[in-house]
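Researcher: Next sequence.
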Amino acid sequence: MPSPFRFSRHPLAVAVALAMTLPTAASAADRSIEERLAELEARIAASERRASQAEQRAARAEAALEAQQGTEQGHAPAQQLAQHDNVSRTSGVPQTSEDEELSAPGIPSEIREEEGKGEGLSMSVYARSGLLIGSDRKSAPGGPYLTPAGRSGGAVGRLGNEPDTYVETIFDYNQRFDNGAHSLYRVMLADKTTTSNDWTADESELNLRQAFVEFSDLPSFTGAFENASIWAGKRFDRDNFNIEWIDSDIVFLAGTGAGIYDISVTDGWDTSVSLYGRSFSDYPVITREQPELNGDTDNLILTSNNRFGPWQWMISGMSANDNDERDNDPRNGVPGDNVAENGFQTMLAYHGDSFFGMGDGTFKAALMYGHGLGGEVKDLGADGNLNDDANTTRLALYGTTYLSPNWRIAPSLLAQTSRDRYANGDRYDWVTLSARLANELTENFEMQYEASYQWMDLDPAGYGYVDGNNNPQVFERVNGGYTRLTIAPTIKPQVGGFGLRPEIRFFATWSDWNKDLNRFSDEDALGSDGFTGSEWTFGTQMEVWF
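Model: Next structure:
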């Protein structure tokens, strides 16, 4: 039936009529004709903007009403909810298609990142919760970073390998002003536990991970800044991206600061500039007079993120005053090496709209290099223990495509080499190959499979740690491979694409590794009691985002 919100408007005529009825601030005798015409023109322009915004709100309300009426009559929406395969780790929420219909009757889809798509308060969520049990019917070690290479960012995949409950909840407030300007206020709460109990207050890691405001469509921004937006506060950077199915960020920039996005340098070149601060707190300081002295500082990260069509070039400089006084080796009486006070990181990435040029799908490629404090090339500015001479190079390749109407695949390659990372002469080299495969059997059921192999050659060069009993220990040199295979029957409201959620999985996983890897550390999962190789784990997991 016709919507009560459907009506025609003539913005200019309405604006003129409104402007003519408004009194001026001074009498006509005291104002020149040019001043009065300029004022009238400004009022007409403002009225046209308000009329246009009202039309947009009416159109959204009409779409919501029609979707609700269709659902009440037992009809499905004209289009089903669609989501891109790539999920933004910065918010835990997938980027959604602009053609997306309402996923719930009468609730506007305001969780999209596109500015101006909704007004008012909205909420979005990412959550996972699972049970991971070993063959001894006890909780088993797990997580994408459970191998020795995980300490330097070497992930091995998620499917059938996560023993935690993790929740992110985002509240957004979008506001459109009479002059056309837009503001976004975002706050994000997150919590993580590994216990299976329902009451987890003693183990909670509840955090406020984001709290920022962003302004866009500012009338005063013209020229190169016409499409720019400005922000300040604590946030995940908008241009972060990741490999969702192995839970590894390609690059993750976050902290507290300010920045400006989308400055148009030329027709084909946009740049974004930001300054983030990250705190290094309560680290031991090298001193003979006060051996128990602790220090703190802030790592300031100045970043320029540049876009040239599908290409992205990012460069970051870092400075943490007095961080070079840190003792980065926690063993008593063993001073750390030359800890970095400065550093830089750079990344060249390509965001493809096909599957490596061979067919429909997506792919991304990134090459990164970092030095000093930039030697942690993924979590920028997060590691204060890096050596002044640290050098790290990392390569990432991944994509998604359909092999046939019912089979889809998502392969990935991660490789990293790092030298002088924490101690002079150390070496951390690893390569991870992973693939997620899914067979869509019905509208609500699919079989998922995942295979991962990781090779690593790690030489900590005498770098040490303090174990759980407060005893000094040394990381051992190890070399070998880790293999993991998972099969996971999956139930979901609708199949289609790696980015479509929610879903419930049941899984069985087999993993094995070279026994040499059990020696790396007494604190690692590999080599822990009852987890020494050729292991079977079983469990179930739910995952949802909206």
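Model: The chain has a mean pLDDT of 83. The radius of gyration is 27 Å.
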